[in-house]
């Protein structure tokens, strides 16, 4: 299914996030093969050049690795994947804190709010 | 590479292009955008060798002053109907296969089934959308380095537009081909574009990578609106 993209960020960055999220969630496991460039381009409705760039940049971040003649694979380096998981967590937390601060909430209020919310959800 | 060097194209009194210079690199999907009458189609026709410049040079892979012989390396899809109505879809494919040495019949069959067209259907009974699909099939089935599409979405409903975009992604091989599209339906095609060239009143107003436009927190339409405003201020 073609994806709806945000208008104000490069598409390759949005696809990098999407793949990173899928990897952290476990939808794509360590060592899994990613779709071919063309396949993924058709699936997501973007230019194959964009997908090439996504794979290239993820490879530079050592989240995926390309094997000559075989394709691109999720790294099997668990340490790196744990680190990615932490990075994504921190990014979300930073975002949350920034917006709460803009609304004028104190640190204590944020923590209390989170605690109340997680109790409500039962985990 | 396609290069325009100080190109002017004048129709009697009206200058469709006015001293225009730019380069288009290979292996990309490039959108030529702008209002009606801005000079987009003229640009495409000059590349296809259907028009000659009044002044300046158009170079395709270094070959200057292109004429209709360039059709060996350029597939041009016009905005108008160009398939004889008395053909069936299959006959139309055979006809174009006989006209172009580079026509890939196998690929044509693949695209036909992707576009869900039946070979037995008569061209004259095809809906507007299916005519659009057939034109695309014929154009994309050619193994040529340059594919030019003039307003491929105009007058087509969203379903057909989306089928055409998917067909482009699937069947254009950017390792050996380049794609140049004129359109004003930018939203639809934006995820597929590498770069955009904005033309207005026969002049190039802007030429940018889509990624760079988005890095500034805008989409292509927003960027164009900004360019237009800047021009109005200077007017």
Any overview of this molecule?
Chain A starts with 10 loop residues before the first helix and ends with a helix. Chain A contains 5 helices and 2 strands. Chain A is elongated. Chain A folds into 2 domains: 11-76, Winged helix-like DNA-binding domain superfamily/Winged helix DNA-binding domain (Arc Repressor Mutant, subunit A); 79-121. Chain A is mostly helical and 123 residues long. Chain A has a two-stranded antiparallel ribbon with strand order 1-2. In chain A, helix 1 packs across helix 3 (48-60), helix 1 crosses helix 4 and helix 2 packs across helix 3 (48-60). Chain B is α/β, with parallel strands linked by helices and 235 residues long. Chain B has 3 domains: 1-20 and 40-66, no CATH class; 73-192, Rossmann fold, CATH 3.40.50; 194-235, no CATH class. Helix content of chain B is 34%, strand content 26%. Chain B has a 6-stranded mixed beta sheet, with helices on both faces. In chain B, a hairpin with a 2-residue loop joins strand 4 and strand 5. The longest helix of chain B has 15 residues, at 220-234. Chain B is globular, with a radius of gyration of 18 Å. The chains are: A mainly alpha (123), B alpha/beta (235). Chain A binds chain B through residues 2, 5, 7-12, 38, 41-42, 44-50, and chain B through 27-29, 162, 165-166, 169-170, 174, 191-194, 210-211, 214-215, 217-219, 222. Chain B: GO terms for molecular function: ATP binding. Chain B: This is ABC transporter ATP-binding protein YhcG. Chain B: Keywords: ATP-binding, Nucleotide-binding. Chain B: Residues 2-226 form the ABC transporter domain. Chain A: Residues 9-77 form the HTH gntR-type domain.
């Amino acid at each position: 299914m073609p994806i709806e993209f945000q208008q104000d960020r490069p598409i390759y960055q949005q696809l990098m996030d999407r793949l990173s999220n899928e990897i952290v969630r476990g939808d794509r496991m360590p060592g899994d093969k990613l779709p071919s460039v063309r396949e993924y381009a058709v699936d997501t409705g973007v230019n194959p050049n964009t997908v090439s760039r996504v794979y290239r940049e993820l490879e530079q971040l050592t989240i995926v690795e390309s094997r000559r003649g075989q394709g691109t694979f999720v790294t099997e380096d668990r340490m790196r994947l744990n680190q990615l998981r932490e990075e994504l967590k921190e990014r979300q937390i930073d975002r949350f804190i920034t917006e709460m601060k803009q609304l004028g909430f104190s640190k204590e209020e944020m923590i209390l709010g989170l605690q109340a919310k997680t109790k409500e959800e039962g985990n | 590479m396609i290069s325009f060097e100080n190109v002017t194209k004048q129709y009697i009194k009206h200058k469709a292009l006015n001293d225009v210079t730019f380069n288009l690199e290979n292996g990309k999907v490039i959108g030529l955008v702008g209002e009606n009458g801005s000079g987009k189609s003229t640009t495409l026709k000059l590349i296809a060798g259907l028009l000659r410049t009044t002044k300046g040079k158009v170079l395709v892979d270094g070959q200057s002053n292109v004429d209709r012989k360039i059709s060996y390396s350029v597939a041009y899809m016009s905005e108008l109907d160009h398939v004889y109505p008395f053909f069936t879809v299959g006959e139309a494919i055979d006809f174009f296969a006989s006209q172009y040495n580079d026509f890939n019949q196998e690929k044509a069959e693949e695209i036909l089934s992707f576009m869900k067209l039946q070979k037995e259907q008569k061209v004259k009974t095809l809906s507007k959308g299916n005519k659009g699909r057939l034109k695309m099939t014929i154009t994309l089935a050619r193994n040529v380095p340059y594919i030019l599409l003039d307003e491929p979405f105009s007058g087509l409903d969203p379903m057909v537009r989306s089928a055409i975009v998917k067909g482009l992604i699937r069947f254009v091989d950017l390792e050996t081909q380049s794609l140049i599209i004129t359109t004003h339906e930018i939203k639809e095609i934006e995820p597929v574009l590498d770069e955009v060239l904005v033309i207005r009143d026969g002049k190039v107003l802007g030429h940018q990578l889509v990624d760079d436009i988005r890095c500034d927190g805008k989409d292509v339409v927003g960027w164009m609106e900004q360019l237009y405003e800047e021009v109005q201020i200077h007017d």
